[in-house]
Amino acid sequence: MEKTYNWAILGAGHIANKFAEGLKILPNARRYAIAARSLERAEVFRQNHGFEKAYGSYEEMVKDPNIDAVYISTTNNLHFEHTLLCLEAGKAVLCEKPFASNLAQVEKMIATAREKNVFLMEALWSRFLPSMIQFKQEVENESIGKPSLLQCDFGYISPFSPHSRLYDPALGGGSVPDIGIYPIFVAMYLFGYPTEIKVSSIPSPTGTDWTTAILFKHSGGEISMLSSSFAAVLSNESRLYGSNGQLKLHKMFHMITRLTVSRNNEQETEIPTPSAGNGYNYEAAEVMTCLDKGLVESPGMSWQFSLDLIKLIDTVSALAAKAK
Ligand SMILES: NC(=O)c1ccc[n+]([C@@H]2O[C@H](COP(=O)([O-])OP(=O)(O)OC[C@H]3O[C@@H](n4cnc5c(N)ncnc54)[C@H](OP(=O)(O)O)[C@@H]3O)[C@@H](O)[C@H]2O)c1
Predict the structure, then answer these.
(1) At what angle do helices 181-191 and 303-322 cross, to 10 degrees?
(2) What letter does residue 157 receive in the DSSP assignment?
(3) CB of residue 56 inside a 6 A radius of ligand 1
(4) Ligand 1 atom with least separation from CA of 177
(5) Could you tell which of 10, 14, 77 is best to mutate to test the pocket of ligand 1, judged by most ligand atoms within 8 Å of the CB?
(6) Which of 108, 106, 113 is CA-nearest to residue 90?
(7) Are 216 and 223 in contact (CB under 8 A)?
């Protein structure tokens, strides 16, 4: 019989609500515990999403022996500390993107997971969405011939506020680590770690990157033109041009979305990518599939991929800071 997993959520913010919704369609996921810095906030979340237990402290929650897996949804600067807290307590971890604040932290997180023999995965949900998986499949099937150019951007207007998590350097703010990570992920997912990196960037008043443009060259001869911004609404699409046509993940490319192909300048035709749920269910399902198999690492979102991704974000962020 399929095992049921007791899920816990650490941090009761915006995305935690979406993840809790995602869990609802998974028959092997029990909505078990929620922890927030205040018990009142955790209790409201518990009632809204039908969890069994509410905790007013993260430290207290991870001591609960019934918890199988913890989804970490705190601000970017806290992922490292909270991942270690859970791994030390022997809980499987699914931690929001960016995995941590820098490469050294991700290395330490992975070393701890390895030492404790506990599951750890970065919650880059887009990786497990049917539309994203099919996008890559089409590339591998050469459905648009040889790919040459990827254009992918993610931008929306977030009014400047020095204490918002998007602008406060202490909370891990910046468009690159927060949303630029998605175009960077797509480029790496399709073509691997780049061989050349160029960056131009405009800083926000707190010094975090506001709008950043990135150019990658890849070993297969492909170019990625990527951008992220909190100062402008961008296309929020992922378009790949090849020798025989164009593939497009429509707006919002990082969510469950439409995938189309157009060959030889003909009209776009839809490539079906059936899906269920709000999308966050797929990453949770991946965790449980891995746990069923006794794995500590997901083959779909491997530790090496997460190491490469944070290394690339560190490099792009450093070049963005220099470009100011
Ligand atoms: N996968 C996606 O689609 C997606 C989308 C948006 C964001 N994210 C990621 O999810 C994470 C959370 O983003 P969010 O939009 O949910 O943010 P949010 O609504 O501001 O929630 C952040 C959570 O962090 C906790 N926290 C702990 N210490 C904090 C402190 N000193 N200051 C502020 N918050 C603190 C809070 O938990 P308490 O409830 O305990 O107070 C709060 O619930 C980020 O890492 C972000 O990159 C992912």
Answers:
(1) 130
(2) B
(3) no
(4) 47
(5) 14
(6) 113
(7) yes
Name the closest-CA residue to atom 1, ligand 1: 125
Cis peptide before 177 (omega within 30 of 0): no
Q: Is 15 near ligand 1, meaning CB less than 6 Å away?
A: yes
Question: Could you tell me the maximum CA-CA distance found in the chain, to the nearest angstrom?
Answer: 60
User: Which ligand 1 atom is nearest residue 17's CA?
Assistant: 16
Residue reference for tokens 């797509």: 186
Residue 86 Cα to ligand 1 midpoint, Å, equals: 17
- The residue contributing the CA closest to ligand 1 atom 34 is 75
**Whole-angstrom distance, CA of residue 109 vs CA of residue 81:** 9
- Summarised one tens digit per residue, pLDDT across range 98-156 is 999 999 999 999 999 999 999 999 999 999 999 999 999 999 999 999 999 999 999 99
* Alpha-carbon gap, residue 25 to 8, rounded angstroms: 16
Q: What b/e sequence results for 138-176 when a residue is b if at least 16 CB atoms lie within 10 Å of its CB, and e otherwise?
A: bbeeeebeebeebbbbbbeebeeeeeebbbbeebbbbbb
Percent of the chain topping pLDDT 70: 100
Q: pLDDT tens digits, residue range 184-201?
A: 999 999 999 999 999 999
